């Protein structure tokens, strides 16, 4: 202890008297100590109950079945039996006991079968019990299957994403799920009798994975499983259900979301899984780190192999009972669409949005891109707000997103941008008829959004800034005293910073990944610090949302824009104010942050890592470099020190800041399913009123040339052009 204290400056030791401990050599000793045969006195010292007259019960537990502490805890998940009146207890074989078992005198229990048996509740007085031929747990019987670790099961920014075939390989999925349950238990989450939420974006292997997760969950003690109808559960709806669903005693401790977000789906494409905590947010790094460590050393999984196939096509409740009637699992298929809709109705003024939609001069189109958003769009936009059903395109979820790439950007949302009258660079094009007033799209799991006006593309960074500037027209913000804080990822443009400065809002710049916004949102409740809410958050990668949930929310962003449009168009007699009009006025007031992102997808990982190392090594030599009218003022790599919990996130993006305030950022994406994706972000601020409407490519041409020549990106990764430009 002394050596340990000396190793850490300012450290000290807490001296605990030896008498506060009782000797525990075997699990049966722990079994006795945890029972009511012992009490803890006012001095916090364990001592035998006075009625025992100093005599410790004699307990003999099967040394093979109760060898490890985890074996004992699994067999006594319902609590330790009463031993205060017990003289002697012998248990042979695996027997599940609980606090409802009261042993008096001398009791012997035998189970010679090869499966665990549950000792029924009751008082057992000087008796011998043979459970060998008793009914077992039947479909709820947990079995242990041996396994070996798979490499590379480290959760990324939003969970674990790999090719579908990888997830279907042997026990790959099983290992990750079991490693998660083990990590949760190690962090003090009580799984016994708990509720788990499961669903996904509907991609290939979704339904099979739900069945696998359910079987492993039951084996690990979960006794209520909530599943989205048809296995569908959008990421924002998952967060809403975790946070809002009542009654409290049925509140889920967490959720598995089966999604690879915007990545393609299908047998030859990507699959993914992520765990969200009970607060509705992505698993914190403290948990994902433990999960990863578990995946590297896992030797077995627990699974209820005989659990019947769960029907997920209809809303309803199913009860699966054990053969002996001692236990049961409740499976509830829920309408997550209704859950999400209820929450959004409390956030926005649906009456005003309905009035907007009812205007003869208003029209819109919404593209679900054959992801999970389709049913939500029908219920919220069409049924609740009156948007014509024919305005909802690609609204049927498909296992392979109908062969498309469910990523809402100018490259992949081809049908939408053609309808809205813009090209893949976001510039207006000639159309035979006037396009709709408003357009939007969602990705596979519905947490992302793309906003379009008539012949106008609104970048995610500008969208965030405009919403921040108009937050008071959204009831959720207005009724809480107004927007208090904004948070953006570091690569996102500084457009919202200008709004925050003018409106005196708190501003947070975080690494990429919605989980980093969670601490800002939960600062007061979880950490006992300043309350920064209500909070508006956004990422340049088409993610926008608020602290109504703990995930980005594609539908929320669309409704926010409809609320803003409704505000400007309350009088149907006046000329319609379009998205473009609103954004142009915003630029005139705050200036414009010209911004774009180059994505280089499918880069060989060694080449991608070599490029990033090269940029780190060149940092010092780049300072002072002059190219195409730009001079590098500083070169660094973004490190984030969380002001809420003090955690540090390193290597979050390589930056080159120019003397005029322009900047270039390079980072490796954490969401790629295979290979690596290098993202290059470019930003230039413009205040000149005569230069606010230039095409983005024209405004950023010299900065792009500077970035590519300075970095040697094309030469180092062997790709001449980016896969996507947004």
Automatic annotation (TrEMBL):
Coiled-coil residues: none
PROSITE patterns, per the entry: PGM_PMM
CC annotations in GO: cytosol
EC number: 5.4.2.2
Keyword hit for Transferase: yes
Keyword set includes Phosphoprotein: yes
One MF annotation (Gene Ontology) recorded for this entry: uridylyltransferase activity
Reactions it catalyzes: alpha-D-glucose 1-phosphate = alpha-D-glucose 6-phosphate
Keywords per UniProt: Isomerase, Magnesium, Metal-binding, Nucleotidyltransferase, Phosphoprotein, Transferase
Enzyme class: isomerase
Cofactor(s) this protein requires: Mg(2+)
GO biological process, one term: carbohydrate metabolic process
Record domain Alpha-D-phosphohexomutase alpha/beta/alpha: where: 153-300, 354-452, 462-573
NCBIfam families hit by this protein: PRK07564.1-1 (NF005737)
Family membership noted in the UniProt record: Belongs to the phosphohexose mutase family.
Protein name: phosphoglucomutase (alpha-D-glucose-1,6-bisphosphate-dependent)
Source species: Pinguiococcus pyrenoidosus
